[in-house]
Amino acid sequence: MMLIEQTTVPTAALPLERFKEHLRLGTGFADDGGQDALLEALLRAAIGAIEGRTGKVLLARGFTWTVMAWRDTGRQALPVAPVTAITELRVLDRQGGVTVMSPEAYQLVRDTHRPRLGATATLLPQIPLGGQAEVDFQAGFGAAWAAVPADLAQAVFLLAAHYHEHRHEAALGEGGMPFGVMALLERWRTVRVLGGAAT
After folding, report:
1. Cβ proximity of 30 and 120 under 8 Å
2. What pLDDT digit, counting tens, does each position of 5-54 carry?
């Protein structure tokens, strides 16, 4: 399986000014934006780390997911949440021939933690031996920062601030995420059971 991010979070969607307030950067000086590139990089790093830990996409963007076989012939859990739309499903054969499947053959089954690609009839399209399926979909809580749940937004600020505070260190002694960040993420983590079998 392989997940590829097809679109990135635009800079305008990042809460740069709110993050500056969170850091309580010095006031009374001209804001020439000299720190903006660093702060943007820290926010992106924190968003990436939190999305990786929770499997939740904070800001809306497009993805392509490639699979070699379905775990369940009638439904397939998608790798991230929340998924807002499945835009295309393609089946590729061993020689690279592509068949775009009709949207009437599949549906999005919405779920907070485990959205699924589901068959509208009995079975998902068959993936030929040596072939693969590619699923294009849109995921994320929304296009604007205001759509991100408050606890996840706060976790991003705390983790980005942690990165800012330790930005000159070659390595962190303890490693991992700060406890406060982990506490905020706990309810968003996906509990995997049955060895990853379809749920």
Report:
1. no
2. 999 999 999 999 999 998 886 554 445 567 889 999 999 999 999 999 99
Give the DSSP H/E element, type plus range, for residue 42. helix 36-54
CB 106, CB 89: distance < 8 Å = yes
Alpha-carbon 165 to chain mean position: 25
114, 199 in Cβ contact below 8 A?
A: yes
CA dist 108 and 157 (Å) reads 32
What lies within 8 Å, CB to CB, of 56 at 6+ separation is 50, 80, 81, 82, 141, 152, 188
Q: Which amino acid is at 36?
A: D
Full-model pTM = 0.86
Query: Would you state the structure tokens that stand for residue 103, as one six-digit string?
Result: 């949207």
Q: Cα-flanking dihedrals φ and ψ of residue 63, to 5°? A: -135, 155
- Could you tell me which residues are beta bridge partners of residue 107? 118
